[in-house]
Each structure stands twice: as structure tokens, then as C-alpha cells.
């Protein structure tokens, strides 16, 4: 009996989060037993260069010794107190130091909780019910945010999720990404009823699709003019694409609320809701919007997050950016050498690949700019590409809808191994046929 058979007998679908299954590429998922630096090791003892990075948290690479030491020290002092701790203040201060608009910070355990709470706060603050989200964006799995969501929902080709009451879904207006006219039209159609617009600061759950220049600023301006809040979901981009996330990298817009996760937990479960002090003071016990968590601000988890942020200096971002540039360009060149049309989708050091060309796929830019355009890509070329890379010891995200995550630990040896695997993978992509 394989580990996957054993898992499937006791865990629905054999995984504890759908994106881990290989539904988008075929085959059985790897079962990992350890990870260090840029590499992971599976249950058969085989080592892979890793470009999943725990889906984002592993900015420094896996099991950075100083992060592990911080976790061990914190664990030795106690695993959980259910009371305020100095460590959670430190993490909140580190977040605010880097992202000035994060005037107040509430720590939670998952990105899902952060975005779910952001919507509740926005509704409490504005006294309105409706929310705008963009098709293809993923904000976790709370009821109101699963419609036309990216990530695993996109990989499984689901329009949303069963189990969401129609009345809840009706509170979410889903519109096309990078479409300002659609934002204006939604506000015009529902005057005085929209509490907030939530957007991935740069979309990275339908593959990577950066916002058009000025898009975030214009959405924030429209929302504010209409008395609504602008919520920037930086769970994935925050502290990854730069020291102050996409907000710091792009500049020119002011969110009322931001959500963070992934990197701020350094591999342990920490996420956060942050933003304007007057809006954040809606949260209980300061205000009337209830939110709570037995393990919120867990002392071991915040120690991992604070250690990670302290270590994430300019040198770290320079290394991640350089490795991302090298790998993205090498993939493009390898595919071009085999005559495979591809668009390299970038948002800072995040990247993914959309197979096809504007002519073949009807893209409005050099690559897809909306979820509909993403879905028009030649995604059928990804599974053989993925498996050829895996065979050569490179662990890619098992879905064309996910970003590739590089770390500061991706040294020359790791990058060389990726580059060496590319020619065969490009040949496999070239030989692929639809269906
Ligand atoms: C942009 C974004 N928001 C929210 C989430 C939800 O975070 P979590 O998986 O920690 O619930 C994710 C990833 O899962 C994400 O990428
Ligand atoms: N794309 C997701 C988040 O960014 C991947 C994490 C998950 O849902 O397991």
C-alpha cells in the first residue's frame, strides 16, 4: 500500500489542502519528510530542488537555522498560553515598521481568517453588505470569497464551492480583473451598498497576473469616492516581493485594510489583518466586530515569523530577485528553443508561465490579463513539462494556476539543477497535444 493509498483511506482525497494533490498534472503527490534550504526530500529518500516553498512562506529557504533556533527557544518556554505575549507585539511592530499603512495589526492563524475578518470589519465600518472581488483571485476558503476563485478552485475547474448558501454568494459581486469599467459599473449598479473591494495586490493564484499599471490606485480611488473600503490581500505577496510587499514595490495607492500570511509566519501558522487605525478599532474588544482565536498570536509561531522578518533584509530580496530572473528567463529560452509559445508572467520575484500566444489564445496583452484569458492558455502543455522536471529532481507547483516560489537559499547549485532539467521538459511541452 502506498502512502497515498493510506492517506486516501483516512483523509478526503488523500490531502489536507486540494492544491497538494496532483489533480492538475496527474499522478500521485510526493510525500515529503524533510526540507532544508532550497531542497525537499520525499519519503523514498529522493531529494528535489523545490520551487513550491510551502506555497510562499519559505522566503529564506526551508528550515533556516536561525528561524529553527527561534522556534526551539520559544517552544522551550511553552507552546501556547492563551494570553498576550511580548512576541506578538514584536511581530506586529515588525509588520508596521515595513508597511506604514498597517497602523494596527491583528494576528490570526490563516490567510483565510484574515480576509474573512477583513470583510466583516469593512461591513461593520461601512454598514453595507456587498463586496466586490475579481475573477481568478483567491482569498482563502470563506463562504463569500470562493466564487470564481483561483488556486485549487481553478485547478479543479470549479465555478465556486458547493455548500455556500445562495444568500451568502449573492453578497459577492465578481467582476473581471484589470477591468476598471467593470468596477465603475458595479458601483453604479449598487449605489451605497458596496462595503469594499478586495483584490490580490498582484494576482498569483491564476498563475501570476500583475495588475495593469495604475489599476490598484484607480480601484482604491473609485472605492473611496463611493464610500467603500479598499482591501489589499497581500497574504501571498506581502514581505515576499519586497520588504513592504506589493504595496511597497508598486506604490501610489493607500489600502484601508491589508491582509498578510505566509512569510509572516516563517512556515508556522500566522496571518494578519492590518490597516487604518479607525477601521481596525472596529475589532473587539475595541469595537463591535467580533473576531477571536484560541491559538491567535501563538508564541512559537510568532517567534518563527519575527525571526524570518528580521532576517529578510535587502540582501535576501536581491538574491530572490536574481534567482527568479535567471530561472524565468531560462524557462522562456528553453521553451523558445523547442518552438513552444509561452508568456512569462511576472509580478516582482513571483512568476509563472502561460503557454500559448496572444494570437492563439486571444490575450489582450503579451500574456493573459484576466481570468478568462488565463483559461484560454494551452494549459495542457503543463503536465508533461511538470513531470519531466520532477523526473529530473525539480519540484514545481502541481498546477499551471500557481506561482513558482524562489527562496534566498536557491544558490548556484540549485539554479544549475533547474537549468539542466529544462531542455527535456521543454521537449515534453513541445510534444504535448490538447486533450
Ligand atoms: C492571496 C491569498 N489570500 C489568502 C490566502 C489564504 O491563506 P491560507 O491558505 O493561509 O488560508 C491565500 C493562500 O492560501 C492567498 O494566496
Ligand atoms: N495557492 C494557495 C495559496 O496561495 C496554495 C495554498 C493552499 O491552498 O494549500
UniProtKB/TrEMBL annotation:
Which GO terms of the molecular function aspect are on file? Answer: glutamate-1-semialdehyde 2,1-aminomutase activity; pyridoxal phosphate binding; transaminase activity
Q: What is its EC number?
A: 5.4.3.8
Name the SUPFAM superfamilies for this protein: PLP-dependent transferases
Q: Which Gene3D superfamilies match?
A: Aspartate Aminotransferase, domain 1, Type I PLP-dependent aspartate aminotransferase-like (Major domain)
Name its cellular compartments: Cytoplasm
Q: Which GO terms describe its biological process?
A: protoporphyrinogen IX biosynthetic process
Can you state which reaction this protein catalyses? (S)-4-amino-5-oxopentanoate = 5-aminolevulinate
Could you tell me which InterPro entries the record lists for this protein?
4pyrrol_synth_GluAld_NH2Trfase, Aminotrans_3, Aminotrans_3_PPA_site, PyrdxlP-dep_Trfase, PyrdxlP-dep_Trfase_major, PyrdxlP-dep_Trfase_small
Stretches of the chain forming a coiled coil according to its record = none
Give the cofactors, semicolon-separated: pyridoxal 5'-phosphate
Task: Keywords in alphabetical order, please.
Answer: Cytoplasm, Isomerase, Porphyrin biosynthesis, Pyridoxal phosphate
Which residues are recorded as modified (N6-(pyridoxal phosphate)lysine)? Answer: 262
Annotated GO CC locations: cytoplasm
> What EC class does the entry list?
isomerase
* Pathway terms, separated by semicolons: Porphyrin-containing compound metabolism; protoporphyrin-IX biosynthesis; 5-aminolevulinate from L-glutamyl-tRNA(Glu): step 2/2
Keyword check for Repressor, yes or no: no
Mind telling me which NCBIfam families this protein's record contains?
PRK00062.1 (NF000818)
**PANTHER family in UniProt:** GLUTAMATE-1-SEMIALDEHYDE 2,1-AMINOMUTASE (PTHR43713), GLUTAMATE-1-SEMIALDEHYDE 2,1-AMINOMUTASE 1, CHLOROPLASTIC-RELATED (PTHR43713:SF3)
On assembly, the entry states: Homodimer.
Q: Which protein family is it in?
A: Belongs to the class-III pyridoxal-phosphate-dependent aminotransferase family. HemL subfamily.
Its protein name is Glutamate-1-semialdehyde 2,1-aminomutase
Query: In which organism is this protein found?
Result: Occultella aeris
Amino acid at each position: 500500500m502506498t502512502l497515498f493509498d493510506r492517506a486516501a483511506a483516512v483523509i478526503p482525497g488523500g490531502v489536507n489542502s486540494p492544491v497538494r494533490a496532483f489533480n492538475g498534472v496527474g499522478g500521485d503527490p510526493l510525500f515529503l519528510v524533510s526540507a532544508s534550504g532550497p531542497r525537499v526530500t520525499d519519503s523514498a529518500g529522493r531529494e528535489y530542488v523545490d520551487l513550491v516553498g510551502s506555497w510562499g512562506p519559505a522566503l529564506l529557504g526551508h528550515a533556516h537555522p536561525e528561524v529553527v533556533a527561534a522556534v526551539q527557544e520559544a517552544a522551550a518556554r511553552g507552546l501556547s498560553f492563551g494570553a498576550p505575549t511580548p512576541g506578538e507585539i514584536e511581530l506586529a511592530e515588525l509588520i508596521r515598521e515595513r508597511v506604514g499603512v498597517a497602523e494596527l495589526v491583528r494576528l490570526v492563524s490563516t490567510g483565510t481568517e484574515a480576509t474573512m475578518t477583513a470583510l466583516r470589519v469593512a461591513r461593520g465600518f461601512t454598514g453595507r453588505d456587498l463586496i466586490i472581488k475579481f475573477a481568478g483571485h483567491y482569498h482563502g476558503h470563506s463562504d463569500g470569497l470562493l466564487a470564481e476563485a483561483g488556486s485549487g478552485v481553478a485547478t479543479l475547474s470549479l465555478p465556486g464551492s458547493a455548500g455556500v448558501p445562495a444568500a451568502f454568494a449573492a453578497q459577492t459581486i465578481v467582476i473581471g480583473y484589470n477591468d476598471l469599467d467593470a468596477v465603475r459599473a458595479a458601483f453604479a449598479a449598487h449605489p451605497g451598498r458596496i462595503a469594499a473591494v478586495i483584490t490580490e495586490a498582484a494576482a498569483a493564484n491564476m498563475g501570476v497576473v500583475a495588475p495593469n499599471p495604475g489599476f490598484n490606485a484607480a480601484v482604491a480611488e473609485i472605492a473611496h469616492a463611493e464610500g467603500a473600503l479598499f482591501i489589499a490581500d497581500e497574504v501571498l505577496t506581502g514581505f515576499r516581493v519586497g520588504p513592504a510587499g506589493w504595496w511597497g514595490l508598486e506604490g501610489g495607492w493607500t489600502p484601508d485594510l491589508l491582509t498578510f500570511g505566509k512569510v509572516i509566519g516563517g512556515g508556522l501558522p500566522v496571518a494578519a489583518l492590518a490597516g487604518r487605525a479607525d477601521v481596525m478599532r472596529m475589532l473587539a474588544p475595541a469595537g463591535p466586530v467580533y473576531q477571536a482565536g484560541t491559538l491567535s498570536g501563538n508564541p512559537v509561531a510568532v517567534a518563527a515569523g519575527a525571526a524570518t522578518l528580521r532576517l529578510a533584509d535587502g540582501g535576501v530580496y536581491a538574491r530572490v530577485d536574481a534567482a527568479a530572473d535567471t530561472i524565468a528567463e531560462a524557462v522562456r529560452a528553453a521553451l523558445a528553443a523547442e518552438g513552444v509559445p509561452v508568456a512569462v508572467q511576472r509580478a516582482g520575484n513571483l512568476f509563472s508561465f502561460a503557454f500559448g500566444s496572444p494570437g492563439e489564445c486571444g490575450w489582450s496583452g503579451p500574456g493573459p490579463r484576466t481570468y478568462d484569458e488565463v483559461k484560454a492558455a494551452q494549459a495542457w502543455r503543463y503536465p508533461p513539462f511538470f513531470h519531466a522536471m520532477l523526473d529530473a529532481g525539480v519540484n514545481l507547483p502541481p498546477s499551471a494556476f500557481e506561482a513558482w516560489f524562489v527562496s534566498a537559499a536557491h544558490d548556484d547549485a540549485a539554479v544549475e539543477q533547474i537549468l539542466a532539467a529544462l531542455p527535456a521538459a521543454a521537449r515534453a511541452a513541445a510534444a504535448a497535444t490538447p486533450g
